[in-house]
Amino acid sequence: MSWPSDIRRLEFIDEIPSWIEAVAAKVETVFIDRMDSFIASISNREWASLIWLGAFIVWVAYYKPTRNSLGQLLKTFFQPVLIVPLLIAAVYATGEIHLLDRIGWWSIDNLKTTVLWLITFAFVTMFEVAMAKSRKAGLGKITRDIVTVTGVLIFITELYSFSLPVELIALPLVTIIYLMAEMAKLKPEHVAVAKLFGYLSALIGFSYFGFSVWKSVEAGREAATWAVALEFLNPVMLSVGFLPFLYIWRTYVAYNETFTTISVFGIDKSLVSYARWLAIIHIRSDLDLLERWRKSIRWSRPANKTELKTTLTALLALKEREAAPLVVQPRDGWSPYLAIQFMAGMSVETGYYHQTLEDEWFAQSAMRELGNGFGLNNNLAYYVNGTEHAVTSVKIKLNINDPATAEAAENLFTAQTMHLLEQAVSFNAVKRLSPQIASLKPFEADIPFGAVSLRRDEFTGIKGGYDRVFEIKRGQS
Prior knowledge:
Elements: H1 3-41, H2 44-62, H3 64-77, H4 80-102, H5 111-131, H6 135-145, H7 149-158, H8 164-184, H9 191-219, H10 226-265, H11 272-283, H12 287-300, H13 305-323, H14 336-339, E1 354-357, E2 360-364, E3 368-370, E4 378-386, E5 391-400, H15 406-424, H16 427-439, E6 443-447, E7 450-458, E8 466-474
Antiparallel strand pairs: 1-2, 2-4, 3-4, 4-5, 5-8, 6-7, 7-8
């Protein structure tokens, strides 16, 4: 007979419900304690933000004209192409949090700050990196901005908040003031209003900051705790740890964009896989080179694998030459890799010097918009032209599309032309020609191995519109 063992088994089974209840009670206690800690960490300013955000969502959902738009917005957001990268980023961030938790530098008290960091930094920077015109510049800016004086000031400002009624009243008022300040900047005639709201915004900011400093001093040692330090350091550590993910994400976006566009505008779709393999083997993470290759493919349109590989080989050879450029004698022009840097002192950057026609090479800066109007603004740009081995023409072109604001644009044009003349020729040339440049009257003058000219051309489509072109030529027969 095996009754004793059966009886013991039944007794164990009877004990299971009480054991489960004890575990459940323990879990419930821990969960409630942690939720209480989390709720207690939410400041009055954040409660006010949540209340106003909730009210706004309810209004949008209730108001019929905006209800359909909200549905379309949510439908667009939850597309796999958007939601999958965000979920992967959240998993990566979870790994970061786990590591910090293992070494004792993260606790449930930091959950609120971590969630805000995930939404306002991790997700936002992913979109910034994806949309940045310059991949390298986009990631570099994010890296620099992780720890800044502004970040420290914001942290101090957020340490303490006013009472909930005050925050509920202040939040919409402050938001309106900041929005009006930004709107006023868009029109030159509202400069005085923009300054007034700017001063008012600064005063509000200093008030919040001063209140937080005063409360911190009043709290004394209570404010200078390890928990408070972790509250500040956690987003910084998470941001630094997130950089490798952003680097991989940036590379993925660049490759995806490149091979999507060249399959449409550049090469036959049957060559795309081979092009991707060449890029992975030879270009790897050099995204500037990847972008240059994309443009080269679109221009040359290689028809087979040999021609496709030749475009990359030529570009790699060109990059080596850029690293150690040949000396160009003044009688032949300027070195292309020096000429594209002539305007760097005026914060003007050009793209790469590249081939446009059979023996014509070219580089230019982005068009700089001058003015804040809603219509056509004045603009100017820097251009470099020549052959593969030497630049023979550098010029600055100013387009006056809004004659009412021409004076400020022409002042900048004058400053840039004198800077270009000094860099491309000499300071003595600036001293000799500055009166003619300052007058903005058309002229031509000789320089060693070349000439300088300034001309003005009237527009036909814009009343009172015109352009000015300042050009230096050298080495042309």
